[in-house]
Amino acid sequence: MLFSSMTFIYVFLPIVLFLYLITKKELHNPILLTASILFYAWGEPKYLAIMLVTILINYFGAILIEDKPKIKRLILFFSIVLNLSFLVYFKYFNFIIENINAVFNSHISILNIIMPIGISFYTFQAMSYLLDVFREEVKAQRDIYKLALYICLFPQLIAGPIVKYHDVSEQIDSREVNFEKVELGVKRFIIGLSKKVLIANTMALVADKIFAQNPHDFSHSIAWLGSFAYAFQIYYDFSGYSDMAIGLGLIFGFQFMENFNYPFISKSISEYWRRWHISLSSWFRDYLFFPISRLISTSEFFYKLTEKIGRKKASIILSFSSLFVTWACIGMWHGAEWTFLVHGLYNGFFIFVEVVTKWSKEGKTKLVRFIQHCYMLLVALLGFIIFRSESIKYAWDYIMNMFGLLHLHKDNFIHSLSYYVNNIEIITFIIAILCSVPIFKNMLSVKNKIADAFINVWLLLLFILSTAFIASGTYNPFIYFRF
Length: 483
What we know:
This protein has helices at about 5-20, 30-45, 50-65, 70-105, 120-135, 145-150, 165-175, 180-210, 220-250, 270-275, 280-295, 300-310, 310-335, 340-355, 365-390, 390-400, 415-420, 425-435, 450-470. The protein is mainly α.
Protein backbone atom coordinates (compact mmCIF):
# COMPACT_ATOMS: atom_id res chain seq x y z
CA MET A 1 0.00 0.00 0.00
CA LEU A 2 1.36 3.40 -1.00
CA PHE A 3 0.94 6.54 1.08
CA SER A 4 0.05 8.22 -2.21
CA SER A 5 -2.93 5.94 -2.88
CA MET A 6 -6.64 6.59 -2.46
CA THR A 7 -7.01 3.46 -0.33
CA PHE A 8 -4.45 4.69 2.18
CA ILE A 9 -5.57 8.32 2.27
CA TYR A 10 -9.33 7.81 2.42
CA VAL A 11 -9.74 4.37 4.01
CA PHE A 12 -6.76 2.99 5.92
CA LEU A 13 -5.44 6.17 7.57
CA PRO A 14 -8.82 7.60 8.70
CA ILE A 15 -9.88 4.29 10.27
CA VAL A 16 -6.57 3.79 12.11
CA LEU A 17 -6.46 7.43 13.26
CA PHE A 18 -10.06 7.32 14.49
CA LEU A 19 -9.44 4.17 16.53
CA TYR A 20 -6.17 5.60 17.84
CA LEU A 21 -7.65 8.89 19.03
CA ILE A 22 -10.77 7.49 20.73
CA THR A 23 -8.97 4.79 22.75
CA LYS A 24 -6.89 4.89 25.91
CA LYS A 25 -3.11 5.22 25.77
CA GLU A 26 -2.74 1.57 26.82
CA LEU A 27 -4.26 0.54 23.49
CA HIS A 28 -2.22 2.86 21.27
CA ASN A 29 0.66 0.45 20.71
CA PRO A 30 -1.57 -2.57 19.99
CA ILE A 31 -3.60 -0.53 17.50
CA LEU A 32 -0.48 0.72 15.71
CA LEU A 33 1.10 -2.74 15.68
CA THR A 34 -2.05 -4.31 14.23
CA ALA A 35 -2.34 -1.52 11.66
CA SER A 36 1.32 -1.91 10.70
CA ILE A 37 0.98 -5.65 10.12
CA LEU A 38 -2.16 -5.11 8.03
CA PHE A 39 -0.42 -2.32 6.10
CA TYR A 40 2.48 -4.59 5.18
CA ALA A 41 0.34 -7.65 4.51
CA TRP A 42 -1.95 -5.63 2.21
CA GLY A 43 0.60 -5.63 -0.61
CA GLU A 44 2.36 -8.96 -0.14
CA PRO A 45 1.13 -11.13 2.74
CA LYS A 46 3.46 -14.01 1.83
CA TYR A 47 6.47 -11.92 2.90
CA LEU A 48 4.99 -11.02 6.26
CA ALA A 49 6.55 -14.19 7.69
CA ILE A 50 10.05 -12.92 6.86
CA MET A 51 9.48 -9.72 8.79
CA LEU A 52 8.06 -11.66 11.74
CA VAL A 53 11.12 -13.96 11.75
CA THR A 54 13.33 -10.85 11.68
CA ILE A 55 11.51 -9.59 14.78
CA LEU A 56 12.10 -12.92 16.59
CA ILE A 57 15.79 -13.04 15.63
CA ASN A 58 16.42 -9.58 17.02
CA TYR A 59 14.22 -10.01 20.07
CA PHE A 60 16.06 -13.11 21.31
CA GLY A 61 19.43 -11.92 19.98
CA ALA A 62 19.33 -8.69 22.00
CA ILE A 63 18.23 -10.49 25.19
CA LEU A 64 21.08 -13.00 24.82
CA ILE A 65 23.56 -10.18 24.19
CA GLU A 66 22.46 -8.52 27.42
CA ASP A 67 22.25 -11.72 29.48
CA LYS A 68 25.42 -13.40 28.17
CA PRO A 69 28.06 -10.62 28.16
CA LYS A 70 30.97 -13.05 27.89
CA ILE A 71 29.85 -14.28 24.48
CA LYS A 72 27.94 -11.22 23.33
CA ARG A 73 30.28 -10.63 20.36
CA LEU A 74 29.55 -14.11 19.07
CA ILE A 75 25.80 -13.65 19.57
CA LEU A 76 25.93 -10.28 17.80
CA PHE A 77 27.84 -11.82 14.88
CA PHE A 78 25.35 -14.65 14.34
CA SER A 79 22.36 -12.34 14.81
CA ILE A 80 23.66 -9.93 12.16
CA VAL A 81 24.46 -12.83 9.81
CA LEU A 82 20.89 -14.08 10.17
CA ASN A 83 19.54 -10.58 9.50
CA LEU A 84 21.70 -10.13 6.44
CA SER A 85 21.00 -13.63 5.10
CA PHE A 86 17.44 -12.62 4.16
CA LEU A 87 18.70 -9.41 2.54
CA VAL A 88 21.44 -11.22 0.61
CA TYR A 89 19.09 -13.91 -0.66
CA PHE A 90 16.26 -11.67 -1.81
CA LYS A 91 18.33 -8.73 -3.00
CA TYR A 92 21.69 -10.06 -4.14
CA PHE A 93 21.45 -13.81 -4.83
CA ASN A 94 20.73 -13.55 -8.56
CA PHE A 95 23.31 -10.78 -8.94
CA ILE A 96 25.96 -13.05 -7.41
CA ILE A 97 24.95 -15.98 -9.64
CA GLU A 98 24.95 -13.81 -12.78
CA ASN A 99 28.49 -12.62 -12.07
CA ILE A 100 29.70 -16.14 -11.24
CA ASN A 101 28.29 -17.31 -14.58
CA ALA A 102 29.97 -14.40 -16.36
CA VAL A 103 33.39 -14.95 -14.77
CA PHE A 104 33.53 -18.75 -14.87
CA ASN A 105 31.36 -19.27 -17.96
CA SER A 106 29.06 -21.46 -15.88
CA HIS A 107 25.34 -21.97 -16.31
CA ILE A 108 23.86 -21.82 -12.82
CA SER A 109 20.13 -21.18 -13.03
CA ILE A 110 18.71 -17.83 -11.98
CA LEU A 111 15.89 -18.04 -9.47
CA ASN A 112 12.58 -16.22 -9.76
CA ILE A 113 13.01 -14.06 -6.66
CA ILE A 114 10.81 -11.07 -5.84
CA MET A 115 12.30 -8.77 -3.22
CA PRO A 116 10.00 -8.02 -0.25
CA ILE A 117 9.11 -4.35 -0.05
CA GLY A 118 11.01 -2.44 2.63
CA ILE A 119 13.39 -5.29 3.54
CA SER A 120 16.45 -3.01 3.34
CA PHE A 121 14.88 -0.47 5.68
CA TYR A 122 13.51 -2.75 8.38
CA THR A 123 16.62 -4.97 8.32
CA PHE A 124 18.87 -2.00 9.01
CA GLN A 125 16.54 -0.77 11.75
CA ALA A 126 16.65 -4.18 13.39
CA MET A 127 20.45 -4.27 13.26
CA SER A 128 20.69 -0.79 14.79
CA TYR A 129 18.70 -2.14 17.75
CA LEU A 130 21.10 -5.06 18.20
CA LEU A 131 24.12 -2.78 17.99
CA ASP A 132 22.62 -0.29 20.46
CA VAL A 133 22.07 -3.13 22.96
CA PHE A 134 25.58 -4.47 22.30
CA ARG A 135 27.06 -1.02 23.00
CA GLU A 136 24.92 -0.79 26.15
CA GLU A 137 23.30 2.41 24.88
CA VAL A 138 19.86 0.92 25.51
CA LYS A 139 18.41 -2.00 27.42
CA ALA A 140 17.10 -5.01 25.54
CA GLN A 141 13.37 -4.70 24.97
CA ARG A 142 11.72 -7.55 26.89
CA ASP A 143 8.28 -6.83 25.47
CA ILE A 144 8.25 -8.47 22.05
CA TYR A 145 5.22 -6.45 20.96
CA LYS A 146 7.05 -3.17 21.56
CA LEU A 147 10.05 -4.39 19.59
CA ALA A 148 7.73 -5.53 16.80
CA LEU A 149 6.18 -2.06 16.75
CA TYR A 150 9.62 -0.48 16.39
CA ILE A 151 10.60 -2.71 13.47
CA CYS A 152 7.32 -2.67 11.55
CA LEU A 153 5.80 0.73 12.43
CA PHE A 154 3.96 1.50 9.19
CA PRO A 155 4.85 5.22 8.72
CA GLN A 156 8.51 4.35 8.13
CA LEU A 157 8.30 0.62 7.38
CA ILE A 158 8.76 0.47 3.63
CA ALA A 159 10.84 3.52 2.76
CA GLY A 160 12.32 5.00 5.92
CA PRO A 161 13.57 7.19 7.37
CA ILE A 162 15.75 4.52 8.99
CA VAL A 163 14.94 5.13 12.65
CA LYS A 164 17.59 4.12 15.19
CA TYR A 165 16.23 2.37 18.26
CA HIS A 166 17.88 4.68 20.78
CA ASP A 167 16.08 7.64 19.16
CA VAL A 168 12.57 6.24 19.68
CA SER A 169 12.84 3.72 22.53
CA GLU A 170 11.31 6.15 25.05
CA GLN A 171 8.61 7.18 22.58
CA ILE A 172 7.53 3.56 22.17
CA ASP A 173 7.01 3.32 25.91
CA SER A 174 5.31 6.68 26.30
CA ARG A 175 4.41 9.52 23.95
CA GLU A 176 2.02 12.42 23.87
CA VAL A 177 -0.67 12.85 21.24
CA ASN A 178 -2.27 16.29 21.05
CA PHE A 179 -4.03 18.53 18.57
CA GLU A 180 -0.90 20.54 17.76
CA LYS A 181 1.05 17.42 16.78
CA VAL A 182 -1.81 16.02 14.75
CA GLU A 183 -2.27 19.34 12.93
CA LEU A 184 1.44 19.67 12.18
CA GLY A 185 1.60 16.04 11.10
CA VAL A 186 -1.32 16.45 8.68
CA LYS A 187 0.27 19.54 7.16
CA ARG A 188 3.62 17.78 6.79
CA PHE A 189 1.88 14.81 5.16
CA ILE A 190 0.14 17.07 2.63
CA ILE A 191 3.42 18.77 1.74
CA GLY A 192 5.07 15.39 1.19
CA LEU A 193 2.12 14.12 -0.84
CA SER A 194 2.24 17.22 -3.06
CA LYS A 195 5.99 16.89 -3.61
CA LYS A 196 5.54 13.27 -4.60
CA VAL A 197 2.42 13.51 -6.78
CA LEU A 198 2.69 16.97 -8.32
CA ILE A 199 6.45 17.43 -8.75
CA ALA A 200 8.20 14.04 -8.68
CA ASN A 201 5.66 12.30 -10.90
CA THR A 202 5.74 15.16 -13.43
CA MET A 203 9.55 15.13 -13.51
CA ALA A 204 9.43 11.35 -13.98
CA LEU A 205 7.53 11.80 -17.24
CA VAL A 206 10.36 13.94 -18.60
CA ALA A 207 13.20 11.79 -17.29
CA ASP A 208 11.70 8.50 -18.46
CA LYS A 209 11.25 9.74 -22.03
CA ILE A 210 14.91 10.73 -22.23
CA PHE A 211 16.47 7.76 -20.44
CA ALA A 212 14.42 5.35 -22.56
CA GLN A 213 16.50 6.40 -25.59
CA ASN A 214 20.04 5.70 -26.70
CA PRO A 215 22.39 8.55 -25.67
CA HIS A 216 23.50 8.79 -29.31
CA ASP A 217 19.95 9.71 -30.34
CA PHE A 218 19.35 13.04 -28.59
CA SER A 219 21.15 16.35 -28.33
CA HIS A 220 23.42 17.72 -25.58
CA SER A 221 20.68 20.03 -24.31
CA ILE A 222 18.24 17.13 -24.02
CA ALA A 223 20.90 15.18 -22.07
CA TRP A 224 21.23 18.04 -19.57
CA LEU A 225 17.44 18.31 -19.38
CA GLY A 226 17.21 14.62 -18.50
CA SER A 227 19.84 14.91 -15.78
CA PHE A 228 18.00 17.78 -14.06
CA ALA A 229 14.61 16.09 -14.50
CA TYR A 230 15.84 12.91 -12.82
CA ALA A 231 17.60 14.85 -10.04
CA PHE A 232 14.33 16.58 -9.19
CA GLN A 233 12.33 13.38 -9.62
CA ILE A 234 14.35 11.37 -7.14
CA TYR A 235 14.66 14.27 -4.68
CA TYR A 236 10.96 15.10 -4.56
CA ASP A 237 9.99 11.44 -4.77
CA PHE A 238 12.00 10.37 -1.74
CA SER A 239 11.93 13.58 0.29
CA GLY A 240 8.18 13.71 -0.31
CA TYR A 241 7.75 10.17 0.98
CA SER A 242 9.96 11.01 3.97
CA ASP A 243 7.82 14.07 4.70
CA MET A 244 4.72 11.88 4.63
CA ALA A 245 6.38 9.39 7.00
CA ILE A 246 7.49 12.14 9.41
CA GLY A 247 4.02 13.68 9.28
CA LEU A 248 2.36 10.34 10.02
CA GLY A 249 4.78 9.84 12.89
CA LEU A 250 3.74 13.18 14.39
CA ILE A 251 0.07 12.28 14.05
CA PHE A 252 0.66 9.20 16.20
CA GLY A 253 2.98 10.96 18.65
CA PHE A 254 6.39 9.96 17.24
CA GLN A 255 9.22 12.35 16.44
CA PHE A 256 11.31 10.95 13.57
CA MET A 257 14.58 12.47 12.43
CA GLU A 258 14.64 14.69 9.36
CA ASN A 259 15.75 12.79 6.28
CA PHE A 260 16.41 15.67 3.87
CA ASN A 261 17.63 19.18 4.53
CA TYR A 262 17.80 21.06 1.22
CA PRO A 263 20.77 19.10 -0.19
CA PHE A 264 20.99 21.14 -3.39
CA ILE A 265 22.23 24.21 -1.50
CA SER A 266 25.35 22.32 -0.39
CA LYS A 267 28.85 23.47 -1.31
CA SER A 268 30.55 20.07 -1.18
CA ILE A 269 29.65 16.42 -1.63
CA SER A 270 30.42 15.87 2.07
CA GLU A 271 27.82 18.48 3.01
CA TYR A 272 25.44 17.11 0.38
CA TRP A 273 25.42 13.70 2.07
CA ARG A 274 24.83 15.32 5.44
CA ARG A 275 21.66 16.73 3.90
CA TRP A 276 20.54 13.90 1.58
CA HIS A 277 18.95 10.69 2.95
CA ILE A 278 20.33 11.66 6.35
CA SER A 279 19.07 8.54 8.11
CA LEU A 280 20.98 6.25 5.73
CA SER A 281 24.27 8.16 5.72
CA SER A 282 24.17 8.59 9.51
CA TRP A 283 23.42 4.87 9.94
CA PHE A 284 26.51 3.89 7.95
CA ARG A 285 28.58 6.56 9.69
CA ASP A 286 27.64 5.36 13.20
CA TYR A 287 27.54 1.60 12.63
CA LEU A 288 30.14 1.03 9.92
CA PHE A 289 32.52 3.95 9.24
CA PHE A 290 33.41 4.74 12.86
CA PRO A 291 33.80 1.07 13.91
CA ILE A 292 36.02 0.35 10.87
CA SER A 293 38.13 3.44 11.60
CA ARG A 294 38.53 2.39 15.25
CA LEU A 295 39.38 -1.17 14.26
CA ILE A 296 42.08 -0.07 11.81
CA SER A 297 43.51 2.67 14.04
CA THR A 298 43.98 0.24 16.96
CA SER A 299 45.44 -2.58 14.84
CA GLU A 300 49.06 -3.68 14.85
CA PHE A 301 49.18 -3.04 11.10
CA PHE A 302 48.29 0.63 11.54
CA TYR A 303 50.88 1.00 14.32
CA LYS A 304 53.62 -0.40 12.07
CA LEU A 305 52.43 1.68 9.12
CA THR A 306 52.59 4.83 11.27
CA GLU A 307 56.18 4.05 12.24
CA LYS A 308 57.11 3.46 8.60
CA ILE A 309 55.48 6.37 6.75
CA GLY A 310 54.42 8.75 9.50
CA ARG A 311 51.11 9.37 11.22
CA LYS A 312 49.80 11.90 8.68
CA LYS A 313 50.15 9.57 5.70
CA ALA A 314 48.89 6.61 7.70
CA SER A 315 45.82 8.62 8.69
CA ILE A 316 45.12 9.39 5.03
CA ILE A 317 45.28 5.66 4.23
CA LEU A 318 43.01 4.97 7.20
CA SER A 319 40.49 7.54 5.98
CA PHE A 320 40.60 6.18 2.44
CA SER A 321 40.13 2.57 3.56
CA SER A 322 37.20 3.39 5.84
CA LEU A 323 35.51 5.56 3.22
CA PHE A 324 36.07 2.97 0.48
CA VAL A 325 34.38 0.17 2.45
CA THR A 326 31.57 2.41 3.73
CA TRP A 327 30.67 3.89 0.37
CA ALA A 328 30.91 0.55 -1.40
CA CYS A 329 28.33 -0.73 1.10
CA ILE A 330 26.14 2.37 0.70
CA GLY A 331 26.21 1.88 -3.05
CA MET A 332 25.28 -1.81 -2.86
CA TRP A 333 22.59 -1.10 -0.25
CA HIS A 334 20.60 0.52 -3.04
CA GLY A 335 20.52 -2.61 -5.12
CA ALA A 336 22.30 -5.46 -6.88
CA GLU A 337 23.66 -3.51 -9.84
CA TRP A 338 27.19 -2.47 -10.74
CA THR A 339 25.89 1.06 -11.33
CA PHE A 340 24.95 1.35 -7.65
CA LEU A 341 28.40 0.18 -6.54
CA VAL A 342 30.07 2.66 -8.89
CA HIS A 343 27.74 5.41 -7.65
CA GLY A 344 28.75 4.69 -4.05
CA LEU A 345 32.49 4.63 -4.81
CA TYR A 346 32.10 7.75 -6.96
CA ASN A 347 30.69 9.71 -4.01
CA GLY A 348 33.24 8.19 -1.63
CA PHE A 349 36.08 9.30 -3.92
CA PHE A 350 34.95 12.94 -3.94
CA ILE A 351 34.40 12.95 -0.18
CA PHE A 352 37.93 11.57 0.29
CA VAL A 353 39.37 14.27 -1.98
CA GLU A 354 37.46 16.93 -0.04
CA VAL A 355 38.79 15.59 3.26
CA VAL A 356 42.40 15.60 2.02
CA THR A 357 42.20 19.01 0.30
CA LYS A 358 39.90 20.55 2.96
CA TRP A 359 37.59 21.54 0.10
CA SER A 360 34.49 21.08 2.26
CA LYS A 361 35.53 24.05 4.37
CA GLU A 362 33.22 26.87 3.30
CA GLY A 363 34.86 29.60 1.24
CA LYS A 364 35.29 33.06 2.70
CA THR A 365 34.19 34.99 -0.38
CA LYS A 366 30.97 34.83 -2.40
CA LEU A 367 32.90 33.85 -5.53
CA VAL A 368 34.56 30.89 -3.81
CA ARG A 369 31.23 29.76 -2.34
CA PHE A 370 29.62 30.05 -5.78
CA ILE A 371 32.37 27.90 -7.31
CA GLN A 372 31.96 25.35 -4.52
CA HIS A 373 28.22 25.25 -5.14
CA CYS A 374 28.65 24.75 -8.90
CA TYR A 375 31.16 21.97 -8.26
CA MET A 376 28.73 20.19 -5.92
CA LEU A 377 25.84 20.44 -8.37
CA LEU A 378 27.93 19.09 -11.25
CA VAL A 379 29.27 16.14 -9.25
CA ALA A 380 25.80 15.35 -7.89
CA LEU A 381 24.19 15.54 -11.36
CA LEU A 382 26.75 13.16 -12.86
CA GLY A 383 26.21 10.85 -9.91
CA PHE A 384 22.47 10.81 -10.64
CA ILE A 385 23.22 9.73 -14.22
CA ILE A 386 25.21 6.75 -12.93
CA PHE A 387 22.47 5.92 -10.44
CA ARG A 388 19.67 6.07 -13.04
CA SER A 389 21.43 4.28 -15.92
CA GLU A 390 20.81 0.65 -16.80
CA SER A 391 24.53 -0.03 -17.24
CA ILE A 392 27.95 1.57 -16.79
CA LYS A 393 28.27 1.94 -20.57
CA TYR A 394 24.95 3.77 -20.81
CA ALA A 395 26.01 6.14 -18.02
CA TRP A 396 29.36 6.78 -19.69
CA ASP A 397 27.77 7.49 -23.09
CA TYR A 398 25.15 9.76 -21.48
CA ILE A 399 27.79 11.81 -19.66
CA MET A 400 29.91 12.03 -22.82
CA ASN A 401 26.84 13.36 -24.62
CA MET A 402 26.34 16.04 -21.95
CA PHE A 403 29.85 17.38 -22.59
CA GLY A 404 29.76 17.07 -26.38
CA LEU A 405 32.21 14.17 -26.47
CA LEU A 406 29.90 11.55 -27.98
CA HIS A 407 29.27 10.99 -31.68
CA LEU A 408 25.56 11.65 -32.15
CA HIS A 409 23.27 10.00 -34.69
CA LYS A 410 21.53 13.20 -35.79
CA ASP A 411 19.41 11.32 -38.29
CA ASN A 412 17.73 9.70 -35.27
CA PHE A 413 16.74 13.05 -33.74
CA ILE A 414 13.07 12.42 -34.44
CA HIS A 415 11.68 14.32 -31.43
CA SER A 416 11.59 18.06 -30.88
CA LEU A 417 11.94 19.71 -27.46
CA SER A 418 8.15 19.85 -27.10
CA TYR A 419 8.08 16.03 -27.07
CA TYR A 420 10.23 15.93 -23.94
CA VAL A 421 8.77 18.85 -22.01
CA ASN A 422 5.49 20.74 -22.29
CA ASN A 423 4.35 24.00 -20.67
CA ILE A 424 3.08 22.28 -17.50
CA GLU A 425 6.39 20.50 -17.07
CA ILE A 426 8.31 23.74 -17.58
CA ILE A 427 6.25 25.38 -14.83
CA THR A 428 6.88 22.33 -12.63
CA PHE A 429 10.63 22.71 -13.26
CA ILE A 430 10.46 26.30 -11.99
CA ILE A 431 8.49 25.22 -8.91
CA ALA A 432 10.97 22.40 -8.30
CA ILE A 433 13.88 24.85 -8.36
CA LEU A 434 12.16 27.29 -5.98
CA CYS A 435 11.16 24.56 -3.52
CA SER A 436 14.65 23.03 -3.48
CA VAL A 437 15.99 26.03 -1.56
CA PRO A 438 14.86 27.04 1.96
CA ILE A 439 12.52 29.86 0.91
CA PHE A 440 9.54 28.15 2.56
CA LYS A 441 11.50 26.37 5.28
CA ASN A 442 9.63 27.88 8.24
CA MET A 443 6.22 27.92 6.58
CA LEU A 444 4.59 25.53 9.07
CA SER A 445 5.84 27.44 12.12
CA VAL A 446 4.31 30.79 11.13
CA LYS A 447 2.55 32.45 14.10
CA ASN A 448 0.71 35.16 12.20
CA LYS A 449 -3.02 34.24 12.02
CA ILE A 450 -3.58 35.70 8.55
CA ALA A 451 -0.51 33.99 7.11
CA ASP A 452 -1.44 30.75 8.85
CA ALA A 453 -4.96 30.90 7.39
CA PHE A 454 -3.50 31.48 3.91
CA ILE A 455 -1.15 28.51 4.34
CA ASN A 456 -4.02 26.27 5.48
CA VAL A 457 -6.10 27.18 2.42
CA TRP A 458 -3.09 26.62 0.18
CA LEU A 459 -2.41 23.20 1.72
CA LEU A 460 -6.06 22.23 1.32
CA LEU A 461 -5.90 23.13 -2.38
CA LEU A 462 -2.68 21.11 -2.76
CA PHE A 463 -4.33 18.13 -1.07
CA ILE A 464 -7.37 18.29 -3.35
CA LEU A 465 -5.19 18.66 -6.44
CA SER A 466 -2.90 15.80 -5.39
CA THR A 467 -5.74 13.39 -4.70
CA ALA A 468 -7.38 14.42 -7.99
CA PHE A 469 -4.18 13.45 -9.80
CA ILE A 470 -4.10 10.11 -7.96
CA ALA A 471 -7.80 9.42 -8.64
CA SER A 472 -7.34 10.13 -12.34
CA GLY A 473 -4.76 7.36 -12.53
CA THR A 474 -1.90 9.77 -13.21
CA TYR A 475 1.55 8.17 -13.47
CA ASN A 476 2.49 7.38 -9.85
CA PRO A 477 5.69 5.33 -9.47
CA PHE A 478 7.84 5.29 -6.35
CA ILE A 479 11.58 5.01 -6.97
CA TYR A 480 12.69 3.72 -3.58
CA PHE A 481 10.41 0.67 -3.67
CA ARG A 482 13.07 -1.00 -5.79
CA PHE A 483 15.58 -0.59 -2.97
